[in-house]
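Figure caption, in words: inputs first, then the predicted bound structure.
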Amino acid sequence: MEKNISIDLKNAAGFISYEEVVALAQQSIRHLDSLNAGTGAGNDFLGWLSLPDDIVKQFDRIEKTAKHLRSVSDTTVVIGIGGSYLGAKAVIEGLSHSFAPLLKSKHHEIIFAGQNICEDYMSDLLEILDGRNYSIIVISKSGTTTEPAIAFRILKDHLERRVGKARAADMIIAITDSSKGALRSLADLNGYDTFIIPDDIGGRYSVLTPVGLLPIAVAGADIRMLVRGAHEMALITRKNKDAVSNPSLMYAAARNLLLQTGRPVETLVGFTPRLHYFSEWWKQLFGESEGKEGKGIFPASVDFTTDLHSLGQYIQEGQRILFETFLSVAGTRKKVTIPPEKDDSDQLNYLAGKRLSEVNNNAETGTILAHNDGNVPVIKINIPELNEFFIGQLIYFFEMACAISGYILDVNPFDQPGVEAYKKNMFALLNKPGFEEAGKKLRERLGR
Ligand code: PA5
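Bound structure (5-phosphoarabinonic acid present):
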């Protein structure tokens, strides 16, 4: 089995040449240098670079807290949005049993909240929680984001009414800034145990801080192995100036060259539903990092073979504006073999005795060839197995590639000014104090 994840550009070769990719990757070593020297845009948000080393000293406390939550509850509600939820969700889904909630054996359930403001979602959640013994991890770096703040107000009230304020305080962990924000004040006031999100790590780069690691540990995964994988990838990418053997440099270069050939959309492809939320994490990472100043590659995603029966048609024959990046996983955790049937009435005996993974792998190879024939370039990321170690590698690989790619595009990959626009309007429409004038203007615009 391969020791590390790797990048394969063979199926992009008809669209961009390997030599061009190597040349741009080599030119991009200067971006790697500015990341390491802290001289590029957003240089006050580079704490993620050394996280695989820095976080080690927090392992014991994170694991101890996870054990505590598992002992006092059977369910943990993780409240957060954007970078304060997607990393944990991606890793937990990537590692968990596909039908974890339906398992008969005892397991600790992780439920996410505060990632939307849907009334029905919250009402359904409260209904479920009425019958469960739950704890809460509330995560917000700013401590002021509306969606998780509302969810926390409702769930804190619910929990306190059920178990009392003192017991609730023992079942709530807050992950936030060291001193700023409403969540910090609330945590201090109520005596919650807290973890700090360092100032120099932005939300979408925070999965390897307690933001991701605490929920992942509560779910029962091995956070040490996850970080070990990221550490291994940091060794391969962070200071490696041999462009060809640095997969983050090569990937960043390839996707930017494809953009330059008229492909502004990148679709991340997985052949297992376990990668669905990894794609969501990846979309946030690249979308928030690159999509600014009228620039950036639009990050999309599909789950194959499911979506081959929907978006597959567009990818094969629609506008030629996209390229694909396949997350190609070699191993499976379990085995299922297709049984023979005596009369072959469903005409599937040609598959009898084969494992589903063999069929899936052939679907993957067939899709790559078909999409190439349909004029779609494909980058392939080879992943030996979906476990903590390789997911850790993938996380650091993409974080590094995203930072380099942002610098190639000449944007600051560590800010997200555009996220504020909807918030201002929402606050104005809801009459938040301080937004009265803006509210008046919006109501005029809406004719209200
Ligand atoms: O990547 C980011 O910075 C954002 O997606 C944030 O994570 C998101 O907006 C949530 O912010 P906060 O953690 O401050 O509540």
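The chain has two domains: 6-42+226-408, 47-223.
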